[in-house]
Protein 1
Amino acid sequence: MIGRMIRSATVNDVPEIRAMIRELAAYERAVEQARATEEQLREALFGEHPAAYALIAEDDGTGEAVGYALWFPRFSTWTGTRGMHLEDLYVRPRARGAGHGKALLAALAATCRSNGYDRFEWWVLAWNTPTIDFYKSLGVELLEEWKVCRLSGAPLSELAAQAPDVVNPAPDVQEGHPCEPL
């Protein structure tokens, strides 16, 4: 067992989670894209229908939050089972190398096993060699043949405007269906 303090996030952690999201975005050279507010995070993580879940890594001596992992369930049509998508894994620079990242990943892997999830997946930036090397040391399989696709902003709106009427559309997420697309 890895001797690091990992716990489920609480609503009181939201300001610290937001701060670490911004730190991660700065590290990934995209701080202008990290626009989530504390209110949005509070609703997403602790609202009536959570969209995601978070773990906090704490310094063993001080209890200070030194990292977090934010994840949500996904579904595989190939396996017919749920899996886990890790949206963010971040450990503050001063705490790196002490095992917090590995402890967070181990806790998430245990969550996968206890929930019967067959897959645990996430993305990593191609230039982030230290992180890629860390993941490889854990036995992570890098799926080089896959490309991430993203549709947002004006192109998303333009495509949405072309949508045909849907027969029996799925209820809006706000009406209580947390696994429906946003």
Protein 2
Amino acid sequence: MKHKLTAVALAAVVVAGTAAAAVPASAAPAAPARCHTADLKAGFATGGDATPEMGQTKKQTQAFIWFTNKSKHACTLAGFAGVDMVGAQKTDGTWSLARSAKKPPKMTLQQGSTVDFSITLLPVAKSTAPKEKFVPAKFLVTPPNETTHFTLKWPFGGQILKQDGATHPGTYINPVGL
């Protein structure tokens, strides 16, 4: 009965002269589900241009974190990852990074596909007073709209100007896909 109704509806569209494709709702492909932490792998991009210039102190630099879909299905990511830096000094504590003003795109990750996001960093000299610098040790990275994080060891060394209470800090994250 359902197929007869679909055929009748399709015939009505054709008779009306409208060039449209009628597809039964049961045959329409389902949109991919949101990517969950368990669907993903994460890590720092470490090759060539992806390595931040932590030795210079005159300008901001960027580090990149990637997510790869390790599941057996496509999934979507949209928004900002949560990023908490854990410091190596006793005075560092944990710093939850602010978000940029950029608008996040919605990304569909096919099985095995990778997408990244950048962290803009403001390095400082080693001679900077300990209370004014943050020495990253590890990053707790939570995919958008998730509550479970990855723990990534900071591989680049260096120090960042400590602005964990600033309204517009020089160290912040950009959306996934930008």
Protein 3
Amino acid sequence: MAVIHRTTMKPGKLELLAGWLPTRPWYAGASAAPDLARAGGFRIDDPDGEVGIEFMVVTDASGGEPVAYLVPLTYRGAPLEGAAEGLVGTSEHGVLGTRWIYDGAHDPVLTERLLALLRGAAEPQDQNVSGVPDPTVVPETAEDALPAGAAVAAVEDGPEGTRLVVEAGGRRLGLELVRVLEAGRTDPGALGRVTAGWELPDGTRPRGAVAVLHEG
């Protein structure tokens, strides 16, 4: 079980993301200086207890309409070899010391746990309270779509979002991380999805798919 510490991080997550988000090909904002706020998310435990895993949602209010982004993050006590492309930044944690923070699409621990969540072998956890499941996060997958040996073989980051190429039982699937969230998105015909909610600046709480599994 991951332990969530009530302490400081310097720089904070939003400060790091404000500099990182505009560098992403899927960033939809018109400003290079987003106005970010926390808007929701959830966690998944690392069974080995080494890597913090958070699926964070932030809203950017710098434009005419707020934009909600999904930012899966991992927190590590040392650099992840071969993952420099996915490094968001480093931060000083008040209890754990220096943490290397990665875009989770480039971290094999997060992608493995996301696949486990989709096949029912992992449970979504509350974003802010240790050891508390989050029943508002709903994974759904077609039967046998993701066998236990399924693994992410490649990461494709482009203007439309991030696609994880999944090899599963001799088949190739595409797992989309929905970077720019859309209220009510369900993707009929998909092999699977993870649905969650978030909060907009006006207090409304939409729901939609945050990850979608497709054939091919």
